[in-house]
Specification:
39% helix; Aspartate Aminotransferase, domain 1; globular; 13 strands; 391 residues; 2 domains; seven-stranded mixed sheet; alpha/beta; two-stranded antiparallel ribbon; 13% strand
Length: 391
C-alpha cells in the first residue's frame, strides 16, 4: 500500500496559543513549589500588568467573564439599570449584564469597523442608562475620545469589554492605560493567554480592594486571628499556574504583536490578488479596517458576499476545512439567540449586526503561522468563492 500522507495538507486552525519551553519550565517550577493556587506569582503578575498599564490598579480573575461581572458590581450596576452594548460579541458581554439584574440595550454596529455605532449610542441613552459597555471586536478599539465624551455628557460609567484588545492602542496610548473600568480576557485564543483567565484595570485602591473581595466570596482578612465577609462574592480567583504563564507571555508579547501585524498585512495583499486571479475582483468580499496603528490584530475577519453566492457560510466553512483550513464565527448577533428572543429582543432591531453576524468569517491568524499559510488560505477561499459565485 502506498503512503499518501504527504498529500494530506497540514491543518491550519483558526488560532493556536504559543507557549515556549521557558513557559513550560516556569509552570513546572510552580507545580513543584507546592503553591499552585493564588499566591506570589499572582501578585507578581498583577504588579507587572499594573506597570504595563502605567501604574493603574489591576486585579486578575479566573476568566474574562468574571472580570466584566465584577466590573459591573464595582460600578454599582443592578436591578432597573440599563447598560448600552453591542449585539456583535461573545454572549458573555450581555449575559453578565443580565446576571446583575440590569437590562442590556443593544445598539447597532458600524458596518466598516463592526464595532458599536457611537452615533446610535447617543440616541439610546435614557434616564435609566447607567453605563456603556463597548466591545473592541478583533482588537480594534472604538473612537475613545467620542466614547468618553458621550459618557461624560450623561454621567455614565464605561466598562470596556477589551477582551480581544490586549496590546491595542488609541492615539499612542495602550488600551487599559486610561479610561474607566477595562476588562481583558486571557483565554487560550487571546493575544496574551494564561489558558483561562482575565484582568480588570480599575481606577483606585478602593475599587481594587472591592474587586479582591468580590472574587473570593466577599472575604475581608482581619490579621492573623480571624476574617469577615461583608459583601456577596464568588469564586473567581486566578491561580499561580495561570499567572506564571501570563508573566512569560508578557515577555513575548512584542514579538507576537509584530508577527500578527505582518500576517495581517499579507492578508491585505494576498486576498485581493487571489480574487483577481480567480476573476473575482468585483466580488464584494468585505475585509476589516486596515488599521496598523491601533489594532492588535487579534483576528482577521472577512464578511462573505452571501447574496452573490450559491452557498451559505456553513458550506464555505466545511469546504475550507476539507482543504485543511480552520475558520471561526465571531460572532452571530446576540439578539438572535433564543434566550434573548424570549426576552423580547429582535434581530430586526439591529439590521447591520444581523447581516454581519450572518456573514462574518474568521480566518486563521496566530504567531505560529507561516507566510505560506496565508497564501494557501487566500487561494482556498478564492477557489471556493469562484465555485459558488452566482452566474
Amino acid at each position: 500500500m502506498s503512503n499518501n500522507s504527504s498529500s494530506i495538507p497540514k491543518f491550519i486552525p483558526f488560532t493556536r496559543p504559543s507557549f515556549n519551553q521557558e513557559t513550560i519550565d516556569a509552570v513546572s517550577e510552580v507545580l513543584r513549589s507546592g503553591w499552585v493556587t493564588s499566591g506570589p506569582k499572582l501578585a507578581e503578575f498583577e504588579a507587572a500588568l499594573s506597570d504595563y498599564f502605567g501604574g493603574r490598579p489591576v486585579r486578575c480573575f479566573a476568566n474574562g467573564t468574571a472580570t466584566m461581572k465584577i466590573a459591573l458590581q464595582v460600578a454599582g450596576i443592578g436591578a432597573g439599570d440599563e447598560v448600552i452594548t453591542t449585539p456583535i460579541s461573545w454572549v458573555a458581554t450581555s449575559n453578565v449584564i443580565l446576571g446583575v439584574g440590569a437590562k442590556p440595550v443593544f445598539v447597532d454596529i458600524d458596518p466598516v469597523t463592526r464595532n458599536i455605532d457611537l452615533d446610535k449610542v447617543a440616541l439610546a441613552i435614557t434616564p435609566k442608562t447607567r453605563a456603556i459597555m463597548p466591545v473592541y471586536l478583533a482588537g480594534l478599539p472604538v473612537d475613545m475620545d467620542r466614547l468618553y465624551s458621550l459618557a461624560q455628557q450623561s454621567n455614565l460609567r464605561v466598562i470596556e469589554d477589551a477582551a480581544q484588545a490586549f496590546g491595542s492602542q488609541w492615539q499612542g496610548k495602550k488600551i487599559g492605560s486610561f479610561g474607566d473600568l477595562v476588562s481583558f480576557s486571557f483565554q487560550a485564543n487571546k493575544n496574551l493567554s494564561t489558558v483561562e483567565g482575565g484582568c480588570l484595570v480599575l481606577n483606585n485602591d478602593a475599587e481594587a480592594k472591592l474587586a479582591e473581595k468580590l472574587r473570593l466570596q466577599g472575604l475581608t482578612r482581619q490579621g492573623m486571628d480571624g476574617m469577615d465577609v461583608d459583601v456577596l462574592g464568588g469564586k473567581d480567583n486566578l491561580t499561580d499556574v495561570n499567572a506564571v504563564i501570563g508573566l512569560q507571555q508578557l515577555k513575548q508579547l512584542p514579538t507576537y504583536q509584530t508577527r500578527r501585524a505582518t500576517l495581517a498585512r499579507q492578508y491585505f495583499d494576498v486576498i485581493p490578488a487571489e480574487l483577481k486571479l480567480a476573476g473575482l475582483e468585483n466580488l464584494p468580499l468585505e475585509l476589516p479596517v486596515e488599521n496598523f496603528t491601533d489594532s492588535n490584530w487579534h483576528m482577521f475577519q472577512v464578511v462573505l458576499p452571501l447574496k452573490q453566492l450559491n452557498a451559505d457560510r456553513a458550506q464555505i466553512m466545511t469546504e475550507l476545512k476539507e482543504l485543511g483550513i480552520g475558520t471561526g464565527v465571531h460572532y452571530p448577533a446576540i439578539t438572535g439567540f433564543t434566550l434573548y428572543k424570549d426576552l423580547g429582543y429582535k434581530l430586526s432591531d439591529t439590521p447591520i449586526a444581523e447581516r454581519i453576524g450572518r456573514s462574518i468569517l474568521t480566518l486563521p491568524l496566530f504567531p505560529g503561522m507561516t507566510d505560506e499559510d496565508i497564501g494557501r488560505i487566500a487561494r482556498g477561499l478564492a477557489e471556493i468563492l469562484k465555485n459558488h459565485r452566482k452566474n
